[in-house]
Amino acid sequence: MLGLPYTIQEIAEACFAKDLFQGQIDPTPVRHISFDTRTISHGAETVFVAIKTGNRDGHRYIRQAYDQGVRQFVVESPVDLPEVNFALVEDSLEALQLWAMNHRTRFEYPVVAITGSNGKTVVKEWLATLMEMEFQIVKSPMSYNSQLGVAVSLLQMHPQADLAIIEAGISQMGEMERLETMIRPDVGIFTHLGAAHAEGFQDESAKLTEKLQLFQKAHQVLSGSWQPQLVEAQRQFPQNWVTTGELKEDALQLLSKSGEISAVRFGEEVLEVKLPFTQEVDVHNCQLAMLAAWQLGMTPQAVVEQLSALYPVEMRLELISDNPDITILNDSYNADPDSVRNAFRMLAEIQAQPRKFIILTDIPHLGDQQKVIQASLLEEAIELVGKENIWTVGPVFGEITSNHHVPDTDTLIQTISEEQFLGGTVLLKGARSFELERVIPLLNRKLNATQFQIDLHALRQNYRYLKSFLTPEMKVMCMVKAFSYGSGSWEIAHELVREGADYLAVAYASEGIELRKNQISVPIMVMNPDESSIEALIQFDIEPEISQLAFLRKYVRAARLADLQSYPIHLKLETGMGRLGFSEADLPELVEFISQQPDLKIVSAMSHLAAADDPDSDEYSFEQISRFHRMADFLQQSLGIMPIRNLYNTAGILRFGMDRLGMARMGIGLYGIDPVLGLHPNPPEGSWELTEIGSLRSLISQVQDHPAGVTIGYGRSQTTERPSRIATIPIGYADGIPRSLSNGKGEVLIHGRRAPIFGRVCMDMLMVDVTDIPEAVAGDEVVIFGKQGNERQSISELAAASDTIPYELLVRISPRVRRVYLQGGG
Predict the structure, then answer these.
(1) Are the C-beta atoms of 64 and 43 separated by less than 8 Å?
(2) DSSP codes, 641-690
(3) Does 481 participate in catalysis according to the annotation?
């Protein structure tokens, strides 16, 4: 949402447009900006900026924006649509930045700029949380810190605010100068200097120099004293540089730390402090937020009192779907008008249940506009789900509506019941102070300590990474079989469809039917159809992979009985896998049958490479590739058709060229597993890597002290060799943890350190040795695979320890384990 309304004339002037076309004599002032048609909610009050970025050209979506009610545009070429206004510019992104610069000059309150290799979003969110009780704050939404994101963030500045907090991120030399010109920060925060985006700079010193350009005109710079490079950089700046750390010269100093901080010195004042975090990286980020809040006007006591409100930033926008009757969209950690609308958009896209509900709290600290803004949001919510399906919480909403309204969360919990929300997706959206997450146990039957977190942002990044290896015209088939490799069915499918997947592939018809029932409409291919599934394939419009003529005859007969005019199929060719498919000798008979079936639509010819991930088998792989094209050529010449050629899986995408292929299958790579261990002969330019999307987590149930010489667990298979502390974790082989990890072969992460599994893995629990982690107590987080603090245990590492492959571990994660989907990206 824009901080001030603008007419198209004012926008054109602010961005120095070279021309202005007005098809509407009296244009409506715009209050919203969009560069992505998926974010448009108020078409008549939105200006659409058509931006070209990489392979995406926003001009291609102008018609779609127009159909959504938009009539004001910023474009690089004229818009040929009736009754529209457009500012014509040389470069839409540069025009947006000029507009943002102009808008920034209209406000005198302080602007805080945050940069660094990592931690920007966390520090921004925590600083805003610490200060929101006393100040009205404008902040960058999510991780909007790019050349585009900074401009959009600045345009949110409004007259009622007391402070703006803006992230600034760069990936190469020369980018920071423009960001500094836009932001003109009064106060700067440098989080951490790390390896992120290292490829864009000559060395670490060059990266630091580039980032520090953001603070050239700032009155004050804040950083941690734990990085020597930053301490040295202070000498380059004449302005006030203030630090936090464990040194006497730090303005904010940690005086003692044992598991959790117990004392902090603010200048001359020492306070007892209990932080909600213990990992070093979290403590450092929290110190920076505390220092900034203090320097920006909060008293030390007020800062300390607000610490309990801090939360893990990555836990925002959780999609919890382990109750078959209720899906929960939990965004109860933060609230501002734009994040509310973003949550509304996500709710609109989810088709897991037939009904939709919204539980929405007041949004504090909006000043005089709070009631007006909340009333507008309530109208949007009513339009989305209907008045009867909305619950509001808080005194301001109490002045606006009496329908399903309660004054606070305690009353809400006493008022609602699970039965009211059966068959529904429930959005929990609220300010942190309302603690709406307390509602989750009422709605979730399967709430337990163990959860499998799936990062949908990482999924999207993996998709884009793999797609960058393909030619632009190639289609993408995404593998979502086996519950999307354990990560969820429709949840993963929906995200991939949004990202642009042309096809989804499943193993069995039942998987495809579930996707269709959850409103997935893109083409779906089933890889292992059988005769009993033919009727369902036809009913739910699922395309079979055909590997034998006998099945094809029966499928054609059934399709004709169903009066289908066209029935698409995919032909499986056996090129050396030795599993399924038509051999070269089978092709003449296959061609003869197909030539008599004018209604058959051969969508693709496909095959599998047996060892695409093994460089030692490349000769065999090239033989398979050659055989595949020879067989596809025969089909093409014999039938006069040109089916899409579909051969490569993730390993093939990463290792071989795309010559003559029209589709590629993305499988394990989507989930962040690199099957070729970095052996990519021709990677695209830039820094590329796959990121594991899944993280399996639990909590310590109990910690017991044992003397040396005591056996632990079934079979007495392991004996303590010293006085030991043994922690019990509520996850076992029934949840997918292999018993082969018993007796120290496997490890977990606790407090960012490795703890070996002690004794045998049980059905529902396992034990670990935490003797060397003395601060470990019941309730602490345990990471089986994933990241914790500065330490990471990959699923590939865990698979190697259990003598298996990552695929197997992923698909073995039990359905009883709670799936939580994170939409972050910060």
Answers:
(1) no
(2) --PEEE---HHHHHHS--TT--EEEE-GGGGT--TTTT--SSPPSS----
(3) yes
Which domains, from first to last, does the chain contain?
8-91 (3.40.1390.10), 107-309 (3.40.1190.10), 316-447 (3.90.190.20), 455-671 (3.20.20.10), 694-822 (2.40.37.10)
Sheet arrangement for strand 187-190: 137-139, 163-167, 111-115, 187-190, 220-224, 240-245, 252-258, 260-266, 269-272
* 124: annotated active-site residue: no
Task: Name the token pair of 415.
Answer: 């008022």
Residue 423's identity, in one-letter code, is G
Cα 406 from Cα 392, distance rounded (Å)? 6
Distance CA(441)–CA(595), nearest Å, equals 59
pLDDT tens per residue, range 299-344: 999 999 988 877 766 545 677 765 667 888 888 866 777 778 878 8
Tokens 């602007």 appear where?
A: 111
Copy the structure tokens of residue 270. 């020492």
Catalytic residue among 481, 648, 733, 821: 481
190-194, 593-597, 779-783: range with lowest mean pLDDT: 190-194
State how far the Cα of 485 lies from the Cα of 374, in Å rounded to an integer. Answer: 41
Q: Who's near 817: CB < 8 A, 6+ residues apart?
A: 322, 450, 451, 452, 696, 731, 735, 736
CA atoms within 13 A on the CB side of 804: 19
Residue 417 neighbours by CB distance under 10 Å? 11
Spatial separation of the C-alpha atoms in residues 424 and 524, rounded to whole Å: 25
Q: How does 685-706 read in b/e, with b if 16+ C-beta sit within 10 Å?
A: eeebebebbbbbbbbbeebeeb
Q: Residue-wise over 442-457: b if at least 16 C-beta within 10 A, else e?
A: bbbeeeebbbbbbbbb
Reduced to 3 states, what is the DSSP secondary structure of residue 503?
strand
Give pLDDT tens digits for 238-271: 568 899 999 998 999 998 765 556 789 999 999 9
Catalytic residue among 217, 274, 387, 714: 714
Q: Residue 46 is encoded by which pair of tokens?
A: 């939105």
The predicted-structure confidence for 706-727, as pLDDT tens digits, reads as follows 999 999 999 999 999 999 999 9
pLDDT number for residue 291: 97
Query: How large is the average pLDDT for residues 35-44?
Result: 82
CA distance 29 to 19: 19
Task: Give the strand pairing for 503-506 and 475-479.
Answer: parallel
